[in-house]
């Protein structure tokens, strides 16, 4: 097999490897164990060239695509799908940072092929429920890993892994080997305090769209109007992002979360805006650590990068002042950076 592999293209090797895995996995052993064992035997970033692989993908039969309309990836595409639809090998090209904190309804592994990423893991402690599936609680950081080409990470289902993977370079490319047949609800985490389903039921989606229309049309929005959709993060995002509903969102945030939702939303706004305008991967990495560790970020940066944080901190402040100006002065997260409190 190794001699045959040597004359194959990268895409051909990946598909042949998946066919071999399809035959050796007995479907009874947990897939995450099989994926970790087999995936770690190959450095998938070796000999990987994005342009060459894309050209081959576009000029050969691609096969069945899993979730082709997903916003997860810019773009995402499948290079192998098992005939029994038990697992697939996907590639995700990232041209912007992806900042959602989430768990998974599937299991497997992923590896960085090109670029770099910061993987942060978390623990969520529920304090009270909000609706049938959402919860209000406390999200706390447990670890960070700086991922470079060839690095491998395991995907565990449910709350065994709550993580965020922020892609620091444009493009960053990741390879994901994953199952396709888990019906577990996938949760995402917002404002450091809210656990909410990643995939919304149809009724909630419809009501959220009507809420946006009401705001655009200048209609009055009150608590009874939004009560059914308060368990969903998107409702809070809409309320707190629009001037017409901000006071209602603030009042409800005080009622439901002691203002944690409001403060978390403001922090998220500043973090995401800064992440978009910072030009260098090192600056994005430092900003992520500021958001996660506060004033202790310099220690984490030095541990991950083996270099001091002084210059990158100065570069971040310069970019915030130059590109965000008054917004940076009013957003409490960015204001703390400018004032040296982080």
What does this structure look like?
This protein has 342 residues and is an alpha+beta fold. Helices cover 42% and strands 24% of the residues. It contains 14 helices and 11 strands. The strands form 2 sheets. Strands 3-8-5-6-11-10 form a 6-stranded antiparallel β-barrel. It has a 5-stranded antiparallel beta sheet with strand order 1-2-9-4-7, with helices on one face. Strand 1 and strand 2 form a beta hairpin. Helix 9 runs antiparallel to helix 10, helix 10 crosses helix 11 and helix 10 crosses helix 12. The longest helix has 18 residues. The chain is globular and about 65 Å long. The mean pLDDT is 93.
What would you call the shape? globular
**Which structural class do the helices and strands define?**
alpha+beta
Sketch the topology as an H/E string, one letter per element.
Answer: HHHHEEEEEEEEEEEHHHHHHHHHH
Strand order of the largest sheet: 3-8-5-6-11-10
How much β-strand is present in the residues?
A: 15-25%
Question: Sheet bearing the most strands, described?
Answer: 6 strands, antiparallel, barrel
Distance between the termini: 53 Å
Question: How many E strands?
Answer: 11
Helix fraction, binned, reads 40-55%
Q: What integer is the average pLDDT?
A: 93
Total of DSSP H or I helical runs spanning 4+ residues: 14
